[in-house]
Amino acid sequence: MDYSAQDLMAIAAMQGFAGLSFFSVLLLMALGLAIIFGQMRVINMAHGEFMVIGAYTTYLLSTLVSGLGPWATEYYILFAIPAAFLTAFLFGMLVEFVMIRHLYHRPLDTLLATWGLALIMQQGFRSIFGAREVSASTPSWLEGSVRPTPMIDIPITGIAIMVLTLIVTLAVVWLMYRSRWGLRVRSTMASREMSSAVGINTRWVDRLTFALGCGLAGIAGAAFTMISSTGPTSGTLYIVDTFLVVVFGGAGSISGTVVSAFLIAQGQSILEFFIGSSMGKVVTLLVIIGILMLRPEGLFKSKVRR
User: Beta strands 145-149 and 152-155: pairing type?
Assistant: First the structure.
């Protein structure tokens, strides 16, 4: 490869920023899964489909406001993000009440049940929205790019997604470790019997925790529409990487999830440029497997008692 030092620096900067965009969506997905899988030990194979719910919610709002005028199209995304969260949150509550609450402490059963739910949801998306991918309109203030140097081009949408990810991550950290509800969640996962004995409604905690994880996936879906089109199977593109992030970072560890998502996203982005997409994923997976063989608990060991 006949790259000069300047070319390599430009490539590293461009791929590094591309990795940050991937990291942002991956982290939004992984935060929800870290709560559901890390805290509740529920293997939610339909987590990607909750992301698609958020993406289709954003698409529907984009379609609805298009007839109201340019002013509505410019600002609809500010309402679409909370709407995507709320839609996925409420559907998550319904799924927990109908199915998940009967499968606690049975992780393999949750895997099979949510895998079947994922297939049902995908077919539902095809029946409602069709098999073709759809795209939400992008406000003009999110279009274009920033060029810090003539060789580096940074999309504004990527910057917006990173800002959204930072806000959501800080909110989740505060909710889990600084709020009374987060204390109830952690105490319930540590000892369900003792939590019930002191008056905590553990069933309601379970329902809200699962719904919160699904709602975070909905926010990831809203962010996903800014960088790609949405189809019935778009969620399957992220589910394996999302589980990989949670397991590699340490189940139940928010800080581990952040670090793991960053390392995986950056590693895949840089490797994909030099050795291709498929080989980049293979090399990343092999490295993670090797690290997990030496450190099975992941990068950050959870401090919650089991």
Answer: antiparallel
Neighbours of 297 (CB within 10 A): 13
DSSP, collapsed to helix, strand or coil, labels residue 100 as helix
Residue 66 and residue 176 in contact, taking contact as beta carbons nearer than 8 Å: no
pLDDT digits (tens, 9 = 90+) for 113-137: 999 999 999 999 999 998 888 888 8
Q: Where are the domains of the chain?
A: 19-132+148-239
Nearest to 168 by CA among 118, 221, 238: 221
Q: Pick the closest to residue 26 from 254, 295, 217 (CA basis).
A: 217
Over its C-alpha atoms, the chain yields an Rg (Å, rounded) of 20
The model's pTM is 0.87
Separation CA 213–CA 218 (nearest Å)? 9
What's the pLDDT tens digit per position in 53-82? 999 999 999 988 887 777 778 888 889 999
Residue 51 has phi, psi (to 5 degrees) of -65, -40
Q: Categorize the per-residue pLDDT at 171 as very low, low, confident or very high, splitting at 50, 70 and 90.
A: very high
Question: What's the CA dihedral at 127, 129, 134, 138 to 10 degrees?
Answer: -150
Question: How far, in Å, CA of 185 to CA of 113, rounded?
Answer: 24
Q: Are 217 and 51 in contact (CB under 8 A)?
A: yes
Q: How many CA atoms lie within 13 Å of 153's alpha carbon, on the beta-carbon side?
A: 4
Q: Do 260 and 277 contact (CB within 8 A), yes or no?
A: no
